[in-house]
Specification:
Elements (H helix, E strand, L loop, with lengths): L1 E5 L2 E3 L2 E2 L8 E12 L2 E3 L2 E2 L6 E14 L2 E3 L2 E2 L5 E5 L13 E4 L2 E3 L2 E2 L6 E4 L7 E3 L2 E3 L2 E2 L6 E2 L4 H4 L11 E2 L4 E4 L17 E7 L42 E5 L2 E5 L1
Parallel strand pairs: 1-4, 2-5, 3-6, 4-7, 5-8, 7-10, 7-11, 8-12, 9-13, 10-14, 11-15, 12-16, 13-17, 14-18, 18-19
Antiparallel strand pairs: 20-21, 21-23, 22-23
Length: 254
């Protein structure tokens, strides 16, 4: 099907149906052209404050010179992208997606992606450039843009756009190289503290100010420093691990 909007103001609409996303809701196999329009102060209880692209099979999209301002949603304050569950009997085509010279200003998400939330694996190679992101906000993470994972598929080249705040779910941790431990030996029942740094898929230190991921579990195994070294005890065990996490830094006591 085809959907076209041009030179249009879509202003101050409310969608209180949590099961139906977007002020404008588009899905399945669709050709979309939206240009020179303004989506302003729309509020959605679900995802996609302005436009929700949901259960996408094939999307041919031209989004050019629009303004998305002051829209609010659960995820994706302005735009929400999510593909359909893969079906081997469905024909998937490589469609054209152009998102060029749009402004995303002051949009808000209750959870993730103040301006854009993406779980659509066709954005990575598309023409998405010259867009401006400013003063967007997400209560948990990704003030401008958020994707849970697989940034090499679900997101675009950030360097071609004016954007500062983008992230993914936590991707990996490393031991904090600045953390110094002076313990030479550990006995049964002792507490030994480790300090980790957590990063997203963009290799950015994860700043979880809302403590959304405060209950993450880490499994730690104790290994020989030299596997050929003779030791008295063959087995080691770390039990009753306690973790706390703040601003990308996790402390672990065992």
């Amino acid at each position: 099907s085809n959907f076209t909007i041009s030179n249009t103001l879509i202003d101050s609409n409310s969608n209180n149906d949590k099961s139906n996303c977007g002020t404008v809701h588009l899905n399945n196999d669709i050709n979309v052209s939206i240009s020179n329009s303004k989506f302003k102060s729309n509020t959605v209880k679900s995802n996609g404050g302005a436009i929700c692209f949901d259960k996408i099979i094939n999307l041919n999209l031209n989004l050019t010179e629009n303004v998305f301002s002051g829209n609010i949603a659960h995820n994706g304050g302005a735009l929400y992208f999510k593909g359909n569950t893969y079906d081997e009997n469905t024909l998937y085509e490589d469609k054209t997606i152009s998102i060029i010279h749009n402004v995303f200003d002051g949009n808000d998400a209750d959870n993730f992606g103040g301006a854009i939330y993406s779980e659509y694996d066709k954005l990575y190679s598309k023409e998405i450039k010259g867009n401006i992101f400013r003063l967007n906000y997400a209560d948990i993470m990704g003030d401008d843009v958020y994707t849970p994972n697989s940034v090499n598929k679900t997101l675009f080249d950030m360097s071609l756009n004016t954007i500062k705040k983008f992230t993914t779910k936590p991707a990996y941790i490393i031991l904090d190289p600045s953390y110094k431990s002076y313990v030479n030996s550990i006995y049964t029942g002792d507490i030994y503290q480790l300090k980790f740094l957590m990063y997203d898929e963009f290799n950015q230190l994860y700043m979880d100010d809302t403590k959304y991921y405060s209950s993450l579990t880490i499994k730690v195994t104790l290994e020989r420093k030299n596997e050929y070294e003779e030791i008295n005890d063959a087995d080691y065990k770390l039990a009753e691990n306690v973790c706390s996490f703040s601003k990308g830094k996790k402390k672990k006591k065992s």
